[in-house]
Task: structure prediction
Amino acid sequence: PMTLTTSTGQVAPVAQCSPISPLALGAKVFCRAPSDHQTDNVAMELAGAFPGGTLIKQTVSIDKDGNVLGIDPNLLQQGKLYNISLKAPGGLRKTTSFTATSGTTQISNFVLPIGDIFPADGGDGVINSLDKAELNRQWSIAVDVTGRTGDFNRDSRVNSIDWACMRYDFNATDDPEPIAGGV
Result:
């Protein structure tokens, strides 16, 4: 809660402020269906693609509506070109360019490929037969499971729906990391 007081001593009513991310992904992320959960521990790299642009690396979250949470709104300058890279746990790095606008910048058709679950310590940057073998090892349709990396849609099962999510991007690889000052 905040109380605003003018220099003349006038006090505004108490208000609740919450930060609003200046960056929103225009597509539902993960598993090609509307998400009903937030994805945490997403590695973000944001590079200014203009002379003097910097590279910022931080961990963010993506809410169920595709909004990037935890990004400092002061990082973006209106009218400047940026390259952004996001990599979620069990997914591949996706990189795209955008120009920052006033208000919330929308990035359209930004979908993170999901399914890079082997090796277990963070994947290898490609969705391939090793990841499918790990998905098969985790397969469970009769018993609720939680915390398995192959449960992409978080329905407490590792099943054909998760295979469909992985299969869509089978043989895809990480996009390159963004470079500051370059396109």
In short: Residues 5 and 129 are 62 Å apart (CA to CA). The chain has two helices and seven strands. Residues 129-138 form the longest helix (10 residues).
